[in-house]
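Take one record.
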Amino acid sequence: MTGYINAPVGLTHLRKDTVRALAGSNGEPSELNPFVTDTDPRLTEDKIADSIRTASTVIDIATATAPLTDQVLTALDASSANWQYPVSDTVPLDITKNTASAGTSPKAARVDHKHNISTAAPSTIGTTNSEGTSTALARADHIHAHGDQLGGTLHSLATQSTAGFMSAADKQRVDEFLTPGALPTNRFDLYASVLQTTSTTAQLFRTWSATDIEAGTYLLRWMWTFRTQSYQTPGVFVLRLNGGLLLQFIMAAAYNGNEVIGAMGIANVPLTAGTHSFQTYISRFGTTSRWVEIQQSYIELIKAV
């Protein structure tokens, strides 16, 4: 049996520490770089300790401590992250009147957080509107002091059935009624020629109309001046409204021939709106022939307040 041994041409000796590597797609192996390097596609799924690989970079978490309950991984910047709580431990801001703002904090508020609201005593009621500048709120049971206010038409006028404010016209009527010697603006004057009579039959002295009367209840006052020839000669004075009897008096002068003021009144005279007629009568009382005289007269109507 014949055998052949082929030997390589020349002698080849390998170092015992020789290491060769497969050629990579990036970087050729050499004595100084015996391994495949750079971003070889075969290494794209490698795990990098203390880091998270993204599509474009590596996020370093080498400095992150072990996570605690309820913590989440939060980016610190473009290449590092750490375990943090997603809610804020900072006390929330007080509620104030200010421009609306989305804020800048990346942290959410806890579900049981509370905002403080400042409260203060409210201002006294004023005479003009004002938004105010205070950042404090008034409590539900706050009270405003009324203070001194101006007049005007801010309140309803008083009526016979409802309390309210007094009008300027009503105030004038009250002053005229209460002030001795005042001349009421709502009176009806009778400065007529003197009526003198010796008759015991009632004679019409004068008829006149009160126009534009408001409907309501009135206080009526009839005032006049008169003379008699003697103390023993009383006069009969009659006042009628729209033909109906309102007042009737028998009076005598204290001194012969001297002028005497007579004043009679009746309250709660109901009047409808419109025009009403008043008549005054005078006659002598008794059988003597002495005269009785009315010199002037007027009626005053004051609406009940």
In short: The first strand starts at residue 51 and ends at 53. The two ends are 156 Å apart (CA to CA).
